[in-house]
Each structure stands twice: as structure tokens, then as C-alpha cells.
Design brief:
The complex is a heterodimer of chains A (about 220) and B (about 190). Chain A is mainly beta and about 220 residues long. Chain A has two helices and twelve strands. Chain A has one domain: outer membrane lipoprotein receptor (LolB), chain A (Clam). In chain A, strands 5-4-3-2-1-12-11-10-9-8-7-6 form a twelve-stranded antiparallel beta sheet, with helices on one face. Chain A is globular, with a radius of gyration of 17 Å. Chain B is of the alpha+beta class and about 190 residues long. Chain B has one domain: Lipoprotein localisation LolA/LolB/LppX (outer membrane lipoprotein receptor (LolB), chain A), CATH 2.50.20.10. Chain B contains three helices and twelve strands. Chain B has a twelve-stranded mixed beta sheet. In chain B, a hairpin with a 7-residue loop joins strand 2 and strand 3. Chain B is globular. The chains are: A mainly beta (about 220), B alpha+beta (about 190). The interface between A and B is medium-sized, with 29 and 31 residues.
């Protein structure tokens, strides 16, 4: 099995876009009202859920790939299982993320590197699981927009801002404050799941995923 | 790989079925695909249509939920996905991965079940008549068996059931099947 090192470090091996890094300025926040805190979790499903998203990945040089992403979540256990399928239903990747780490159940080339599994499950986790700790700061603006900021153990940050009416934005920043991933979630929200999601990663490898909700259930 | 018969008495039936398939030049049909995954409570339903011209031209097109088309003409395979209002070609790696899938489908529509290198075949006269294809070493990590359920209408496949290890399965039901219709060869060349 021959695989280039580039595939190992790229999400989906080939989901590369020529985009630059952008770093919207951080908003300075202080711990907000306890009444507003639940708003920081509004975009994350609270009960067991499952979803099917159509995923369109744009490639370097204009190529593209379309896949189906199937995910099942158990928020109370912080457990996610994700599958990637071809349009005809062939499973390319099947893995589970839990407190114990990532367990890959099924995978085919070129999706068989640990880096790919880690990158994909990080993205799924960013979309569907809130950070484990309580936010270090949060607030609600006069127009109802929630802004929440979590700090991770490695000094990286996750920021969430938005509302159910206008959609949400998630930013992942590295410890230097640079945005490494940006997610835009737009409604309508069906069973707590966004109908349209756009994820852009800037570091270490840039790529873009556009996800459209096909089948929420139960 | 040889053809294995469920019953000796069915040999003649099988011969006549093979003879019927030999008269097929082209097929046009719609299909409904139900993908049962253990993590989903409801199956994932896809709809599409197909065109086949013997021996190796195939158009296998999904209309929803993903609009995508696989085109085979001889040894040339192209895959396109409809995205942001235009057809976009699929990555070469993904195209190669589907080569075997297309080859298997082409063999089904010609009744050449005994020519698969990856599956062992068993015929059961039914009713309904069916061909069971059991995966050999290697491919059985992904597919355990394929059941092809034949229609009472000669040369027509009613349904295909694909079983995977771990309990996931796919059912493809063919509808409005036309045998030997006429259509432009462009259907195998352009999305």
C-alpha cells in the first residue's frame, strides 16, 4: 500500500483549497450571567441523535468530491460514530469517538491513515459536541446574539457566536489566537441539527466542506 | 469461478435463463435503493436510473439525495457529481475504486453471473428464481453475499440484496424495466 505523506496530513487526503488564513479579532468577554450560559450549548444536540449529510468537498485545482456523511451521537456519553459513504452506499470510513479515544471500525485506502481519522473525528466533534469544560466567558448582545469562549488545555480556544434566527459561527483558534477552523451553521435547525454547514480549515492543511442535511432522525 | 446449482433439477431452468439473457442488447430502468446501516434507525433511500448496452456500456445515475452519475464505456470510466449547479468530475482515485462495482453490475444485466472473479454462484429456481453470489476471500471483508432476485418476466432483475459483515445491507429494487430499448450512445459519455 503506497501512500504519500501529503495524504497523511490532509483531511480526506485531498480536500485542499487555496485559501489564506483569516483571523477575525477576538472579542473580550467576561463571565456572563448564569441565565445566559445555556445559550452557549444551543447548537449542540442534547439527546441521542443521528443524521445524514451530503458532503461536498472542493479540491485544489478545482476538482471535487461528493460523499454522504452518516453520524450518530450520544451526547451524555460524549460518543460519536461517523461513516463516510460513496453515493452508491459503499462505506469508505467508519469510526467511533469516545472518552477512550478513536476506534476505527472500517476503512479503505486512501482514508486509512491515523491522521485522517483524527482530523475527521475532530471536525465531527467540533460540529456536534460542546467543549468539555465550562466556557471561560460568555455574553448575550442586545440583539440576542450569544458569544461564548472556551479555553482548551493546550491554550487553544473555541468561540461560538450567533442565534437560532441568524445562524451560528464556530471558530477554533490556536494558542497564538489564529483561526485554524471556521464553521458556519445555518438553519432551519431540524431536531437541533443545522440544515447547512460550511467548514473551512486553514491550518495545517486548508480544505472546505459544504454539508447539507439530508435525513435527520429519529 | 464456477456456477453452483441449489438443485440438480434446476439445471435446465438455468440454461433457459442464460439463453434469455443472451438476447439482451440493452436495458433501461429506474431503481430505488435502500441502504440499511446499523447506526441508522431508518434506511437511507436513494433513487436513480440506469442505462445498459451490451457488453460494457453502463450509466448508473443517482438523482437524490446526492446527484451523481457513473459512466462506463468499454474500459473508460467517468464519475461526475452535480454540485453548485454544474457537473464536476470525481477524483481519479474514487473512479478507480468503482471499477469493480461497475463490472459486477454489467455482468448482472447480461446474466453472466458465472464470470465474476470475486464471487461464487448458486442458483435457486424459486419462485422467485434467484442467484446467490457468495464473496470470496478478501472481498468478504466488505460484502458477504449478493442475492439477485429474478422477475417472472424473462431477462428482468426485480431486486438485488447486498449483505455486508456486521449486519448492514443494501436493497436495490428495479422499476419500469425496459428490455432492448433504443437510446443514444451519448448517455454513456456525458453526464
Amino acid at each position: 500500500m503506497i501512500r504519500s505523506k501529503g495524504l497523511d496530513i490532509c483531511l480526506l487526503g485531498f480536500l485542499v483549497l487555496s485559501v489564506g488564513c483569516v483571523s477575525p479579532p477576538k472579542k473580550t468577554l467576561v463571565p456572563g450571567s448564569p441565565d445566559d450560559l445555556p445559550g452557549c450549548y444551543a447548537i449542540f444536540p442534547r439527546e441521542s441523535w443521528e443524521s445524514v449529510y451530503r458532503i461536498e468537498a472542493t479540491l485544489r485545482g478545482g476538482g471535487s468530491s461528493s460523499l454522504l456523511g452518516v453520524t450518530k451521537g450520544e451526547p451524555s456519553e460524549r460518543r460519536l460514530q461517523s461513516l463516510l459513504l460513496t453515493p452508491e452506499g459503499f462505506i469508505l470510513f467508519d469510526a467511533e469517538l469516545s472518552e477512550g479515544g478513536i476506534a476505527v471500525r472500517k476503512v479503505v485506502v486512501p482514508f486509512d491513515s491515523p491522521a485522517f481519522a483524527r482530523g475527521l473525528m475532530e471536525d465531527v466533534s467540533l460540529l456536534f459536541l460542546p467543549p468539555q469544560a465550562k466556557p471561560i466567558a460568555w455574553g448575550k448582545e442586545t440583539d440576542g446574539t450569544m458569544i461564548c469562549n472556551w479555553e482548551d488545555r493546550d491554550d487553544s480556544h473555541t468561540e461560538i457566536m450567533g442565534s437560532m434566527d441568524r445562524g451560528w459561527r464556530i471558530l477554533r483558534r490556536d494558542k497564538e489566537g489564529k483561526v485554524i477552523k471556521k464553521v458556519v451553521l445555518n438553519g432551519p435547525f431540524v431536531n437541533g441539527l443545522a440544515s447547512r454547514v460550511e467548514l473551512r480549515a486553514f491550518k495545517p492543511a486548508p480544505y472546505r466542506l459544504v454539508m447539507t442535511l439530508v435525513q435527520p432522525s429519529p | 469461478m464456477g456456477l453452483f446449482f441449489a438443485e440438480k433439477a434446476s439445471a435446465q431452468d438455468w440454461t433457459s435463463i442464460k439463453e434469455t439473457f443472451r438476447n439482451i442488447r440493452s436495458v433501461k430502468a429506474e431503481f430505488l435503493q435502500e441502504r440499511y446501516l446499523q447506526i441508522l434507525t431508518k434506511p437511507l433511500i436513494s433513487e436513480g436510473k440506469l442505462f445498459f448496452y451490451t457488453p460494457d456500456s453502463l450509466r448508473w445515475e443517482y438523482l437524490n439525495p446526492l446527484r451523481s452519475v457513473m459512466l462506463q464505456k468499454g474500459s473508460t470510466i467517468q464519475i461526475y457529481n452535480f454540485s453548485e449547479g454544474v457537473w464536476k468530475p470525481e477524483m481519479p482515485q474514487a473512479v478507480e475504486a468503482r471499477r469493480m462495482v461497475l463490472a459486477e453490475i454489467s455482468q448482472w444485466f447480461q446474466g453472466r453471473f458465472d464470470e465474476s472473479k470475486a464471487f461464487k454462484h448458486f442458483y435457486s429456481p424459486g419462485p422467485p428464481a434467484r442467484v446467490t453470489m457468495v464473496a470470496g476471500e478478501g472481498i468478504n471483508r466488505f460484502i458477504q453475499r449478493i442475492e439477485i432476485i429474478l422477475s417472472v418476466k424473462p431477462g428482468v432483475i426485480d431486486r438485488v440484496e447486498i449483505e455486508e459483515p456486521g449486519g448492514s445491507r443494501t436493497s436495490i429494487e428495479f422499476r419500469n424495466v425496459e428490455i432492448n430499448p433504443s437510446f443514444s450512445s451519448e448517455v454513456f459519455e456525458k453526464p
